[in-house]
Amino acid sequence: MLDLLRCKRILTLMAHPDDETLGCGGTLVRAMEKGSTVDIVIPVRRIEDECYEAIKTLGVTSISFGDFRDNEMDDYPLMTVSKFFENYVELFNPDLIFTHYPDCTNQDHRVCYEAAIIATRKRNVELLGCEILSSTGYLKPVRFEPNIFIELNERHMKTKCEAMKKYVSEFQNGRSAEKLEALAKYRGIFSNGQYAEAFMLFKGIV
Fold first, then answer.
1. What CATH number corresponds to the domain at position 65?
2. Is residue 46 part of a domain?
């Protein structure tokens, strides 16, 4: 069972600004309440001002950007992306990493998943794949089948939605506070709680 109390150093390796909030924003808030530190790494540099405001709302202070082109990460050698991630894995030495699900519809998400797998292959670190609203689970017949559900309370959920609203340019086209809350309520069914975020465990350390 994933123990957030044991995961004192958390790292997110997500492709774009807003992925960290959509995929695990509530979990990050809950983890920081328990004393965890969080570092966010985003390889694509865009909407930086919105991103800084969003992670500030979550309570995160550490963020690093790369210079990879948006929606063109599959044009880069995979080892270039994995080396970029590996540098931050070595720097922050996390206990837990959040990244993308491998069959998202966005090609940058898929590249980040593969790069994260390579970057963590020799490290004892838990690795979870996130669910990104309007991207995860759309490819068929492959489906997102979560096996980890992290419970959130009303405050966690409210903070996540407030953070997402800072992404003015992204908070549209299938994304809204109501839809974020609806997804979290649906995932909460599986954890017998009010809200939850869902993940797939790619690597667990016992």
1. 3.40.50.10320
2. yes
